[in-house]
Amino acid sequence: MLTLHSDTLHFAFPEVHKKAQCSVKFSRTLRVPDDQRHYLVPPSLTPIAPNRVDDYVECLPKDWRRRGGVFLPLYQAEALSLSFSGDYPFAIKIGAGKINTITGEPWQNELSPERQDYLVSGRNRFHDGFVVGQQEVRQFVAMPLGEGYTAEEQLTGLAQHGGLQILAYPMKVEAFRTRFGAWADSDDEYRSLDINLCRPGKARTENAEMGLAPGGLVKQKTLRDPYGYDAWDQTRWERCFIHLLNSRQYHAVTGVKLPYPPPGVRDYKNWRLPWYHHYSEGEPVEGTGILAKLASVATWFKAKHGQPLPDNDPPGPVAIRPVQSRSIRSG
Amino acid sequence: MAFADYIRDKRETLRSRDRRYSLRQVAQRIGVEPAYLSKIERGDFAPPSEEKIRLLAQELGEDTDLLLAMAGKVSKDLQEVIRARPQLVAELLRQVKDLPDDAVQHLVREVRDGDW
User: Fold this and answer.
1) CB–CB of B113 and A4 under 8 A?
2) What ipTM was estimated for this complex?
């Protein structure tokens, strides 16, 4: 069952286990300078509340209605961060324009037995971009479809899907009990969240789609699956198409304005926000090299307009906060 | 709380902070006579039409469905939903009757996966 709770997408498989729940949040974050340097993870801002496509069905493009799912507002060239929470392990596949963000291969619902094309929730709390190396990702940056920037367009030559796709497989219950012992069936309850219903606006929008393009480099490991391919219950899955809507059209569709424009490096410095150095134990996936060959937004912009990407200055010295990745407790 | 008491309380609370919420001005904005609104607030008259309740809800910053329910009315859009599939909707409502709020919210906030 996939439900929307305020600012969270909630995957739940009560038929598998009462704890088989995983929440996904989407946060606006700083677009790090796209200058081939490696940056630490910038702090995310407030989570963005997704809206159900079905709540605004009269105002959205036909393709969106066909795909279902939810939509998120983003400013053009704004960076997006995904975070995962929940005590039950899930194998989570993520696509951008139906391009797998870990391998760069075309979207498939199934897990790949040969090469890890998913991340494991709990082991990985964040996913900020396309995996381009063992310890680096290129940030997810929202760009309009049709201008060539997105990973989808660079790899397929088509601006067909856009958005973001998420599919979650729970761990097999036997594997969960074996690995997590008595705690697996203890009475620790997952906390439910409040619900916030939105009111539809009146404007109708077409051609509002955005996709995700590779931005600046961020140091982030995507850790290998420690449980193995056979641990996942591939008979059960839920998936969601997350459409990305330009902030202006979002206002026209929902009547809600985004609270503030995307902050830049200078704002982050003025607010004295620390950047994160994540320490996580475990082997990272290597990436396939397909995504590493993509042109970043700044490269593409310069080729297209003959001038550097605006607001792309390096931050200078920043405050750094070390963060230890939380791992799921094993019993 | 009855419809009459509820809207009078809400309007009076707003009026204590802002004079534009006097009986006369609110009546004017929703397009009824002040005497008529006064009688509704006192419970002398039955609640007004759906259209006026919608305007009143908007005016007082209240939820339209809540005010309609307090007035013992079902909005036109919900009537259409029921008319389209009367048995199914009736059965659904009977089934959710005793569910806790969070379970009902789970039900209505399920995200549909489509064809992609």
Assistant:
1) no
2) 0.73
* Of residues B102, B105, B113, nearest to A2 (C-beta): B113
Are the beta carbons of B113 and A161 separated by less than 8 Å? no
Work out the widest C-alpha separation in chain A, in whole angstroms.
62
**Per-residue buried b or exposed e for B25-42, using 16+ beta carbons within 10 Å of the residue's own CB:** bbbeebebeeeebbebbe
Give the model confidence (pLDDT) of A106-136 as tens digits. 999 999 999 999 999 988 989 999 999 989 9
Residues of A in contact with B104 (CB under 8 A): none
What's the pLDDT tens digit per position in A55-94?
888 888 888 989 999 999 999 889 999 999 998 999 999 9
DSSP H or E segment with residue A5:
strand A2-5
- For residue A19, give the DSSP letter: T
Amino acid at A158: L
Residue A243 CB neighbour total at 10 angstroms? 24
Inter-chain CB proximity A1 and B102 less than 8 Å: no
Q: What is the DSSP string of chain B?
A: --HHHHHHHHHHHHHHH-GGGSHHHHHHHHTS-HHHHHHHHHTSS----HHHHHHHHHHHT--HHHHHHHTT---HHHHHHHHHSHHHHHHHHHHHTTS-HHHHHHHHTBPPB---
CA distance B73 to B58: 17
Q: Which residue of A has its CA nearest to B116?
A: A67
C-alpha distances out from residue A62 to A2, A9, A72, A122, A260, Å:
22, 23, 17, 36, 29
Please tell me the distance from the alpha carbon of residue B3 to that of residue A327, in angstroms, as a whole number. 53
Give the span between the Cα atoms of A182 and A94, in whole angstroms.
31
How far apart are the C-alpha atoms of B55 and B50, rounded to whole Å? 9
Element (H, E) at A82: strand A79-85
